[in-house]
Design goal:
Number of strands: 6
CATH topology of the domain at 32-67 and 138-264 and 272-287 and 354-371: Outer membrane efflux proteins (OEP)
Structural class: alpha+beta
Distance between the termini: 46 Å
Helix content: 55-70%
CATH architecture of the domain at 32-67 and 138-264 and 272-287 and 354-371: Up-down Bundle
Order of helices and strands: HEHHEEHHEHHEEHHH
Radius of gyration: 40 Å
Number of helices: 10
Largest sheet: 4 strands, antiparallel
CATH class of the domain at 32-67 and 138-264 and 272-287 and 354-371: Mainly Alpha
Length: 475
């Protein structure tokens, strides 16, 4: 008795809930969902997903690094102005290079004095490196290699995001198909349960059949709840990969369900042209340029330099102090011009050699990763063609399965009404029909999913988007 009254209780609860939902209230109306077609979703993700934005900014930062590296070819002009008040006690002697003691010039005084005087200095140093034996050029090439790697990473990130968006979009469409199929199954089983209850009440069928029909309908309700949950989760995932931060999202996948997409020409993109392979190749180039930079680091550098400077001091050469504002204006000018050759630290040879060996190992490592990427892309391309072929074959077969399932369910229902079949036979045919309806619609989505995976394996979604945007008639 409780088993047969459970569906009635569920119906009453649903009706009460709907009545409350229709009653006026002060609850704000939720915003309408943003509805995307598949091309719209891919375009939206290009401009809103954070990973793509970050990759683009990395390209901009790397491009600025090229300008910074090229700026090393420009001459350098440094200027300084200084005013100080200090004692002038000087001694004869040498100081090893250090950064703690300030320098002092002038003759030593006969005795130490605590008196102080003003001192000023102003000057400019012009320095230009006309020759560097290729070090700056290697640095520029390294910066350009960083730009190339950033662009390759951006292309790879964009492909990965597009793949994720396409897969999430198709998952939502398939989840909607699951909700539709589950609702149709619930409706058929509700009709069967009512018929079984009527026959049982009129003692034309045993009560056990009515209970079985009620159990089947309750199980269908459960499957419908799970299908709706799957749809909500799929929509949430799509919102995340799109970069939507507020409000629900919906999809318009009617065009994808119209017909099975027509066969397209075979994709012929070489594995080396795939964004993954390009990103790995750019890493190899960057490592090689770094080797070149280190190879030129231990070469001497030639600088042409000229300076003009002037100084003033309130202390005379004999140790007397002129006092007042003397020394606040620099009145002793000097100029200088010359050439300077800077040799690298000879004792850094072992350290530099270790860094060069590490850089060479990095290059070999990146080359191995490039080869691994080629293998992965080649395998994905081979698998993609097989998956597309199988998905098309399944999509061609599911209409046959659906037609047979519909005929079987109709015949079983007629036999049941005539008293020639049991409730179990009808329930089984309804299960087959629900499964066939879902598989027939999902098979077309699986073809699109296979086409998307094949396009991603070839690193170019243009052929896939061409098929998506092509007009198609009704099924």
């Amino acid at each position: 008795m409780m088993r047969s009254s459970l569906p009635l209780l569920v119906v009453l609860c649903i009706g009460t809930t709907n009545a409350h939902a229709q009653a006026p209230s002060s609850t704000p109306v939720p915003p309408a969902p943003q509805v995307f077609t598949l091309p719209d979703a891919l375009t939206y993700a290009d401009t809103h997903y954070p990973a793509i934005t970050a990759a683009l900014e990395q390209v901009n930062a790397s491009a600025a690094g090229v300008d910074a590296a090229r700026a090393a070819y420009l001459p350098r002009l440094d200027g300084v102005v200084q005013v100080n008040r200090a004692t002038v006690n000087n001694v004869t002697g040498l100081l090893l290079p250090q950064s703690a003691l300030p320098g002092i010039s002038g003759p030593p005084l006969p005795s130490s004095s605590s008196a102080s005087a003003w001192g000023t200095a102003a000057g400019a140093l012009f320095s230009w490196e006309p020759f560097d034996f290729g070090l700056r050029g290697a640095s520029v090439r390294g910066a350009e290699a960083a730009v190339g790697k950033a662009r390759a990473d951006q292309a790879l990130t964009r492909l990965e995001v597009q793949s994720a968006v396409g897969a999430a979009f198709l998952a939502v469409v398939q989840a909607e198909l699951g909700v539709t199929a589950a609702a149709a199954d619930v409706e058929r089983r509700t009709v069967l349960a009512r018929a079984a209850r009527t026959l049982a009440d009129n003692e034309l069928r045993p009560g056990a059949e009515a209970s079985r029909a009620e159990a089947e309908r309750a199980a269908a309700d459960t499957r419908a709840i799970v299908a709706r949950q799957t749809l909500v989760l799929a929509q949430t995932h799509l919102a995340r990969v799109l970069g939507v931060t507020a409000g629900p999202v919906g999809v318009n996948g009617a065009g994808l369900l119209a017909t099975t997409p027509p066969p397209a020409g075979a994709l012929t993109n070489a594995p080396a042209a795939h964004p993954l392979a390009q990103a790995r190749q750019s890493s190899v180039e960057q490592a090689r340029v770094q080797e070149d930079v280190l190879a030129r680091t231990n070469r001497p550098r030639l600088f042409l330099q000229s300076a003009f400077f002037t100084r003033g001091s309130g202390a005379a050469f004999d140790g007397s102090f002129e006092g007042g504002a003397e020394g606040l204006w620099p009145d002793r000018p000097n100029w200088a011009a010359g050439m300077q050759v800077v040799f690298p630290n000879l004792f850094e040879f072992s350290s530099l050699r270790a860094r060069q060996e590490a850089s060479a190992a990095t290059t070999r490592m990146e080359a191995a990763r490039y080869e691994e990427a080629l293998l992965a892309v080649t395998s994905q391309q081979q698998a993609g063609a097989a998956v597309v072929s199988a998905a098309r074959a399944v999509a061609a077969n599911t209409p046959v399965q659906l037609t047979a399932a519909r005929q079987s369910e109709a015949q079983a229902s007629a036999r049941y009404q005539a008293g020639l079949a049991s409730i179990v036979e009808v329930a089984d045919t309804q299960s087959l029909l629900a499964q066939a309806e879902y598989q027939d619609a999902a098979a077309r989505i699986d073809v699109w999913r296979a086409l998307l995976a094949d396009a991603v394996a070839h690193g170019d979604l243009t052929p896939f988007l061409t098929l998506v945007s092509a007009p198609r008639g009704a099924p």
